[in-house]
Amino acid sequence: MKKILLVVSLSLALGACASNKGTVDKDAQITQDWNVEKLYAEAHDELNSSNYTRAIKLYEILESRFPNGRYAQQAQLDTAYAYYKDDEPEKALAAIDRFQRHHPQHPNMDYALYLKGLVLFNEDQSFLNKLASQDWSDRDPKANRSAYQAFAELVQRYPESKYAADATERMAKLVDALGGNEISVARYYMKRGAYLAAVNRAQKIVERYQNTRYVEEALAMMELAYKKLEKPQLAADTRRVLETNFPQSPFLQHQWQPNDMPWWRYWR
Cα(183)–Cα(202) distance, rounded to whole angstroms? Predict the structure, then answer.
């Protein structure tokens, strides 16, 4: 039985390869007399019609026949976009990287950076995340940082770009996501009594993510952690910062003591 299944599987795989090769050969034959303008127009039409696989094939044919000139350069960018829309982030990023290496001074480099940021921004969104409002703190912090760097480079190098405004908005979301990730880790440490580690994470939020919604909680967490660590002066100093910056904070309504119930039960 296993041998039969193996033979069937191998036959199907070979058949699929033959089918794909046939499609490529068919496109090559159909387009063999096309000039670069017609080839690009056909590929672009396929892209706009969401036929991403065929669009990519036509762009590849275009690059192989007409490797120099603006059409080949634009084909590289369009290929990256097609991979992005076809949920192939790794291939999209590879295509963008190739474009950046080959054309560092290209007038559309702002778009390349924007597209790179979009790919990274959306890379870890699952199907459910697309249906529901996303909790940014649950995102992969590495992907967040990489996306932020791409958008930041765009805004810094091309402040007048038409993509700069949207990139700036997405950067704000990414900063919030990074702060949310840090507070999640800090909560984890607090729940397990790792107070020094919790303080270190909370301090990072206060220092690096001052404009996020997590600073208030981070300060309250630091106050309690310092009390647990028997650092009364540091706890008092932290509380003064909390009072100054968040005078109406619910955390101020409770005088933390080292043996109090865990802060997360009180706050949640």
Answer: 7
| DSSP assignments along 41-86, one per residue | HHHHHHHHTT-HHHHHHHHHHHHHH--SSHHHHHHHHHHHHHHHHT
Tokens of 250: 């619910």
- Considering just the CA atoms, what is the radius of gyration of the chain in Å? 27
Task: Supply the DSSP string of 75-130, one letter for each residue.
Answer: HHHHHHHHHHHTT-HHHHHHHHHHHHHH-TT-TTHHHHHHHHHHHHHHTT--HHHH
State whether residue 35 is helix, strand or coil.
coil
Which residue in this structure is represented by tokens 């056909």? 42
Q: Which amino acid is at 33?
A: D
Look up residue 128 and give its two tokens: 């459910």
Distance set, CA 7 to CA 2, 13, 17, 79 (Å)? 9, 10, 15, 36
**Global confidence as pTM:** 0.74
The separation between CA 206 and the C-alpha centre of its own chain, rounded to angstroms, equals 23
| Beta-carbon contacts of residue 6 (< 8 Å; ≥ 6 apart) | none
pLDDT tens, N- to C-terminus, the chain (268 residues): 444 444 444 444 545 454 454 455 787 788 787 899 999 999 999 999 999 999 999 999 999 999 988 999 999 999 999 999 999 999 999 999 999 999 999 999 999 999 999 999 886 554 334 434 455 556 678 888 999 999 999 999 999 999 999 999 999 999 998 999 899 899 999 999 999 999 999 999 999 998 899 999 999 999 999 999 999 999 999 999 999 999 998 888 865 554 554 554 544 4
